[in-house]
Every structure is written in C-alpha cells, then in structure tokens.
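PROTEIN DESIGN WORKSHEET
SECTION A - STRUCTURE
LENGTH: 251
TOKENS:
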C-alpha cells in the first residue's frame, strides 16, 4: 500500500498535474471515436490522485468516479472538481485499487501516470484487473513504467525550475529486481510564502509485460494491445523497449 501523505499531495497538485492534463484529451479522443464511447459515458479513474484527469472528462460531460488510497490526494481531487462533486457528476472515494466493488458500470476505466506500478506484486495487479473487469462495460486504458523506463530512475535529480517548488529525487534501481525505488524531498511554497518540506519514498513494481497481457486475456478481456499515448489505436510490438507503455484492453 502506497498512499501519498499530505505534504507530498500538495507538492503533487502543484508540480505533477501536467501529465494527467496532457494525456486526458488523447484518451478521450480515442474513446469518443470508438463506437463503444457513445454508449456508457461513465468513467472510473482508478488511483485518481489529485483529479486533473477526472476534471477533463467532467468538463466534457462525462460522469466520473475517482478512487484513490490517499485521503490527501482525494482532498485535492475534490477541491479541483468541487462544482462537479456538488452537482453529483463527480464522486471521489477512498479505496484500494486491488480490492474494490461498485454497483455502477463504467464505459471506460482509466489509470494514469504509472499508478498501477504502485501495486505490491503480480497478484495485486491481477486482483485489480479482476475488480476492473467486474465493473467495466467496454474498455480499460492504463499505463505502466517499463523496466527500460525504470532504469532511468537510477540517479539523483535536482529540480529548481519553478519558484513554487524545489524537488530532489533520488532513484534506485539495480536493473534486475522487481522494485525500483524513488525518494523525493520536496519543498512547496505556501500562500504565506513559507516553504513546506515533505519526504516521500515510493516504489514502482516492474511488471513483465507479456505476463500483464496474458493475465488480462485470461480474465476475459477480448483484445489487449500495447500502444503509445499519441496513438492508442495502434499496437506496438516491442513494448519492453518503451520507457512508458499504455495498455488498451477491450471487452
Ligand atoms: C503517480 S500518482 C498518479 C495519480 C493520477 N492518476 C495522475 O495521473 O496524476 C499514483 C496514485 O496512486 C495512488 N495509489 C497508490 N497505491 C494505490 C492503491 N493500492 N490503491 C489505490 N490508490 C493507490 C496514490 O495515492 C496516488 O494518488
């Protein structure tokens, strides 16, 4: 279980919102173009974090449920989508990605920014896939950091590119094991000008991509392919060579 703490959630909401904002329109275009996208306009945003991806779909008229383990990340998700929460179009719940149930069925389930690499092992990922399969009408789209990508974590990085944040990351991955670790020491400027410090250590589990695909097929998904975010429709044949790969599973 890796639920981000309060200081890290603030830093995340300030610094790392851009990824979800960038991928959300591409996923939406992919889904809307498919005939399945016209049927059920309910989305499940699994490991929704601070809710920027959810907000994009809400603005486009979708109903969105966001699930995350961290109450602190959910605090920002709710803040960022307050009017939609108040109108009932959005709903954010605290939960575990490998153990959840909903009565509602979702047209599309999304999990972005290597959130599923945060699961403990293959068994947890399989349980997550089972939970998704039970609530998903058509399509499941998620990304994973690959072994190739996680090899790049093995370094120290100092990011002072913004006035609002200062971030030191120390990554460790031996290139062979099943977990890559990242320790972040961050400072984020509060409204009163004082910088708040946070420390967070998290791992990414290194999933074997063939095994991921086989597990999805075994659980009943009709088609599964790997893709790049710019072309979610186009299968790629060497996913392990990518740093980050998107998985598209359809019923
Ligand atoms: C890298 S963030 C991604 C957030 C968001 N999807 C985005 O694109 O910005 C990973 C998120 O996964 C959540 N998380 C980690 N392990 C989880 C679990 N087992 N169940 C549910 N959420 C989890 C964390 O709290 C965090 O919000």
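SECTION B - SEQUENCE
RESIDUE ASSIGNMENT:
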């Amino acid at each position: 279980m890796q639920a981000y703490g309060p200081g890290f959630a603030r830093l995340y909401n300030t610094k790392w919102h851009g990824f979800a904002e960038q991928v959300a329109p591409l996923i939406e275009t992919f889904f809307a173009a498919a005939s399945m996208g016209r049927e059920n306009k309910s989305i499940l945003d699994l490991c929704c974090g601070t809710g920027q991806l959810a907000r994009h779909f809400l603005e486009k008229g979708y109903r969105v449920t966001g699930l995350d383990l961290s109450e602190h990340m959910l605090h920002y998700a709710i803040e960022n989508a307050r009017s939609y929460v108040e109108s009932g179009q959005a709903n954010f719940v605290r939960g575990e990605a490998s153990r959840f149930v909903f009565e509602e069925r979702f047209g599309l389930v999304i999990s972005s920014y290597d959130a599923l690499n945060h699961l403990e092992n293959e068994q947890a990922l399989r349980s997550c896939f089972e939970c998704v399969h039970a609530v998903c009408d058509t399509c499941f789209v998620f990304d994973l950091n690959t072994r190739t990508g996680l090899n790049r974590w093995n370094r120290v990085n100092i990011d002072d590119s913004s006035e609002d944040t200062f971030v030191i990351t120390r990554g460790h991955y031996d290139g062979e094991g099943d977990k890559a670790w990242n320790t972040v020491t961050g400072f984020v400027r509060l409204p009163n000008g004082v910088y708040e410090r946070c420390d967070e250590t998290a791992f990414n589990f290194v999933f074997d991509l063939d095994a991921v695909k086989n597990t999805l097929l075994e659980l009943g998904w009709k088609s599964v392919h790997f893709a790049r975010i710019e072309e979610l429709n186009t299968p790629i044949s060497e996913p392990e060579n990518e740093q980050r790969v998107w998985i598209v599973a359809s019923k």
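SECTION C - NOTES
The chain has two domains: 6-146+207-250, 149-205.
Residues 41 and 62 are 5 Å apart (CA to CA).
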